[in-house]
Amino acid sequence: MKVQETSELSKQYSKDFLWSFWFTLPIYPFSQRQTIRTEVVKNTVWTFDQLQGIFYVVVPIRMSVVKLDTGGLLVYAPVAPTPECIRLLNELVIEHGDVKYIILPTSSGLEHKVFVGPFARYFRHAQIFVAPKQWSFPLNLPLSWLGLPFKRTQVLSADISQTPFAQEFDYAILGAIELGLGRFTEVAFFHKKSRTLLVTDTIVSVPASPPAIVQLDPYPLLFHAKDKATDVVADTYDNRCKGWQRISLFALYFSPSVLEVPRLKDLLGNAFKAKNRSKKAYFGLFPFQWRLNWQRSFEALRDRKLFVAPVLQTLILNRAPTETLAWADIVACWNFERIIPCHFDAPIIAQPQQFRQAFAFLEQPISPDNSLLEADFELIKKIDAGLQKTGIVPPPANQL
Questions:
Q1: How many Cβ atoms are within 10 Å of 13's Cβ, its own excluded?
Q2: Does 141 lie in the same domain as 69?
Q3: Are residues 150 and 230 in the same domain?
C-alpha cells in the first residue's frame, strides 16, 4: 500500500511541476520545474524561484510579484506557469486581488520571453507591458506570433506617466543597445512603498552556499563537486557548496582560468572507468578538470557584494558605456534598500551608491571589473574577438 501511495505521490509531483512547452527552450530541468515562493516584504513583495541550466550548470531564474495599493498584483519577469507555480500565485490572488499587470523587462532574454505568453493566458484580465525593441531570431516576428496576446500587450513608454501603475513605481529603460544580430534592453522597476528595485540580468550577487531552489535536487551540485569522473561524492553540505561554487564560476565565465578541459583520450578513458555511466550521469563523461587554486576565482566573486555579470561587461554594456552609465545614474537616484535580480541571489540588501559602483568598470578606460580576476575573462574576450572579426557584433565603444 505504501509503495502505491508513493507512486501516486510521485505522479502528482510530476504533474505539479509540468512545463509542457519545454521544447521552446530545451534546457535543464526540461519539463519538470519546481517553484519556491518566498515572501521578501511582508504582504507586499514575493519571489518565485525556478531552475535553468545546461550540463547541470543550474542557476535560479526568478519572477517577482508586488502587491498594488489599488488592489491586485504586478508580476515582473514571469517564470514557467507550471500547475504548482500558478497555484502558489493564485493563493496570493485570493488574498490580494487578481494579476493586473505582467512585465516583460527585457528584449533579448529568451529565458524570460518564452514564458510570458503562456503565463498571460492564466490571467486573462492582466495587461502585458514589454520592454521596447523586441526582436526574435532567425525571423523577426510580431509579438502576437511569439504568443503574447495582441489586444492586451503594449510597449513600455519612455514616459512612465503614461502607464497605469505610475503612482506606485518608477522605471528606467536601458537601451536599446545594438548588438548586430539583435538588441539588448532591460527595464529596472522601483517599487516606491517597499523600496525594492527589480532588475533582470544587469546586476547579480553570488551566495557562498547554494540557493534553496538549487538544493531541492542536489544531483547537479554533487555532479560538479566531483574532481574526476570516477569520484562518488557524498551528499554533504560542504560538497553541495563546492558544487555550487564551481557552477557559479562556469555560469558566469563559461570557462574560468582555473578550469581545464581534459584531452579527448583521457575524457573517454575516464568515462569508461566511471561507476555511474547512466544517461543521467552523461554516460560517465566529465569534461572538467579544476586546478587546485580554483576557489580563489570564486572568492573574487564573493568579495563583491553585487556586480555586473562578466558576459554583460565584455560583450554587451561596453558597446554603449555612456548610455549605460546614464541609466545607472537614474536608477541610483531612487532610494531603494534591496535589489531583486532574476538570477543568482535575492534579495540583495544594497544602497543606491553600491548599485552605481557596480558599473564603474565602464568609466575610462573601459575594461572589465578589475576587482574580479582578469584571467577569468579570457574565454569571453576570445568569443568577443571572434564575433567582431566575423562582423556579427560591433566593436566596443572605445574601439570605434
A1: 13
A2: yes
A3: no
Q: Are residues 288 and 194 in the same domain?
A: no
113-143 per-position pLDDT tens digit:
899 999 999 999 999 999 998 877 655 666 6
Q: Which domain holds residue 294?
A: 218-303
| Alpha-carbon span 68 to 193, nearest angstrom | 10
DSSP code string of 243-268:
HHHHHHHHHHHSS-TTEEPPPHHHHH
User: Prior bond to 365 cis, omega within 30?
Assistant: yes
Q: Are residues 269 and 317 in the same domain?
A: no
Of 371, 369, 391, nearest to 380 (Cα)?
369
For residues 244 and 302, the answer to whether their CB atoms sit within 8 Å is no
157 and 68 fall within a common domain: yes
**Cβ density class 200-213: b for 16+ within 10 Å, e for less:** bbbbbbbbeebbeb
Q: What is the DSSP string of 343-358?
A: BSS--EE--HHHHHHT
Both 40 and 129 in one domain: the answer is yes
Return the C-alpha cell found at 197: 528595485
Task: In whole angstroms, give the CA distance from residue 3 to residue 379.
Answer: 50
CATH of the domain at 142: 3.60.15.10
pLDDT in tens, 347-374: 999 999 999 999 999 986 667 777 788 8
Alpha-carbon gap, residue 216 to 112, rounded angstroms = 22
